[in-house]
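Sample intake sheet
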Amino acid sequence: MKFALHSLRNGSECTWVYDTSTSEVFDEQGQLQFAHYPSGDYKPVTPFTRELNPNKKGQTNNLLEISLGFNCNYECVYCSQNRLRGKAYSSKPSDVEPFIKQLKDSGIKPTKIQLWGGEPLVYWKTCLLLIPELRALYPDCYISIVTNGSLLDRAKVDFLAKYDIQLFISHDGPNNQQRTHNVLADEKVVDAVKYSFAKYGYGSVVFGTTLGKGNTDVIKVAKYFNDFFDCKDYQIQVGVHNVARCHDSKDLNQVLACKIPQEDLEIYSSTIFEALMSPHYNYYGCQSLCYRLDNAAETIINKEPITSVRAECCMPFSDGLLTDMKGNILTCHNHATQEYTCGHLSELDKVHGIGYNYWANKKRCRECPMIHFCKGGCPSADDRANELACPNLYALYLGIFRALFGKLFGIYVKTIERIGQ
């Protein structure tokens, strides 16, 4: 599908054309950009539905997610996992030995591992046994853990650093009201973070935000963390790519949190653009935006066809895997109850991902200029939930899209208009 990009270049108005079918870009004279670059070697995606997915799980994984359970000491308003408490398996230390054996027997070889809760530090006794075993089994693997930070202390920081575990702390910055507590008001937690920065460097802790109503200025958010920890050069990494969204349209709290005023969405897009166009070498520490900008640039330069657009995550495919500590393979950490069990590690070669909806099954995705970047949103969220999240994700990728065209072509995209039907 073709879109007219009504833009500014050196103060003058111009209209370019962007074709999502081929990722081709044409200037106002109709000249194809990057015409001398060969197209990338892209493979078409085999379509799938929630009930039928031909993609089998495999031994070589880009990402292995391990669900420790969904107990948590917080009840954040927008959390997609609140409804899973008491409905999914909660691990215990005695699970570790048989689980590690299952991983060995399965032969899987992940490049990245993520440890998920609930709140994973609630399962600290399990972590004390599991993490050393994972590191021994996968010595070169990138392993990370996402925590609300409330149970963090110096001893835990040292333990995680010993096994080279990347620590992510969830906190929304200057407007943190949708979380149960502000962990940065806890002296013990602040001491642990400062200790980690001092001993292991600023990259040892990444703050992951979920931006929403009244809190969408990514530069203010980055400045909040750097000011709080007296960091003078934006060396603290802040993830600002997560925006409040709905994963379950039956959850009223998620639905309400997902509704962000248009003014806030415009601030989100404009400050993302400002951060990415900034001459500051670190882009205010918003490295997650840079990663998405680089991927978007590859899409345009290498002319990715729309038939090769996969999904927002790798879970519907062979290279993504989520398991609980019993070896049950699950759909998504936002949908990890028994009804979403796809199979078991012991029978990996028989497991097909279920519960995912391919973006091409949705008309609004097929007709969206951001489809190569958004990739249809969460493939496991119900269709109404994805529809509610669309404006928020569009605002995220519009800011990245504008920065992309500014950097590649020197134009500022004001508005986007579909051409024809």
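Comment: The mean pLDDT is 92. The first strand starts at residue 2 and ends at 9.
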